[in-house]
Amino acid sequence: MSLISAVADFLKPAPRPGPAVLKALERVAELVDPLLRVAPNFEKQLAFPVEHALGYCDGLVAALPGPIEINRQAFASNPLVHALFATAGDIDQMLGRSQAVRDFLAEPGCWESEYFYAMFAARRLQKKQFGMVQQGDLIQNDVPQQVLFFSDHILIAPCCDLAVTLHKLRCQALESLLRTFSAHVEALRQEREGLRADVSVGRSHLTVLRGSTPGSEYEVRTRHLADLDARLRQNVESLMPEHLLASLAEFLRSPEPALSLAPVSITVDRLGIVREETSQDVDVHTLNFPELSARDKRLHLVMLAKISRDEALEAVEMVRDQQHRFMLI
User: Fold this and answer.
1) Separation between Cα atoms, residue 137 and residue 212, nearest integer Å
2) pLDDT value of residue 7
3) How many angstroms separate the first and last alpha carbons of the chain?
4) Could you read off the pLDDT of 33-67 as tens digits, one per residue?
5) Domain range for residue 52?
6) What whole-number distance in Å separates Cα of residue 144 and Cα of residue 211?
7) Number of domains present in the structure of the chain
8) Peptide bond preceding 15 in cis form (omega within 30 of 0)
9) In 10 A of CB 71, how many CB atoms?
10) Beta strand extents in 237-298 (DSSP E only)
11) Residue 278 is assigned to a structural domain of this protein
């Protein structure tokens, strides 16, 4: 390649981002700060970080296990589903009480297939108790035990088309990242208001002290006010669109601390009692699943679920009937 060709390629304008990146940039302005659009090189500076974040979200969704059927039969045959619910009836309660499932079943699209897909999430918890343990012919009482159980079961983005569900999950993963950064920006704004109030109070105190005989307290207050002023200037500068843009680009290039999956492996028996080692016992199984860490930092088991539409309809009607009876009582 000649020198002139190399210079021409260097000066050639960068190609426009693809449709997916452009759509994501729209969400950036909506969820973080509309003023970001007035920052110099908004599209150019964020195009690659957004594309990287989109690829990262694609990888997270692709790593979800499943789809795994969740129903009464699976509760009896699948050790993971059995561990997720205390009883088979709790599956019906989850389906019947899920607002996402109710909204989905109210749409005509729910009749496209007899099954639908969604992301299932639940919080893993453990509690201590004392119980019995059999070792050979000996039975020991009051043995410390850890019991595994799950709470806060939810279903996200239900749809008859698995590809549509996966697309919705990828979009929600990106939104989670943007909302995390937006929360950071809001915290900076609240800090700015607090610093402004502190500076105002500090100046009032200095005005009072200036009218009296200056002393050590005046010097201390002066240094404290100078420190507050410096922190306020730094805070205000960090909230300028160009600085927010640079911080957001850096955040999207390294999204792992804000949204990530971690593998978990735990061995339990049918009662949910945690075992330290694997066993030949047919009622002892090692469960493997990923846990998602997101904005609230609480860990959630996540996987793709496959659910019968008719069973979900029955569950919704059952819960409605229960709620109606409760209201009458």
Assistant:
1) 88
2) 45
3) 85
4) 888 887 778 888 899 999 999 999 999 999 999 89
5) 15-125+150-259+290-329
6) 70
7) 1
8) no
9) 20
10) 260-269, 274-275, 284-293
11) no
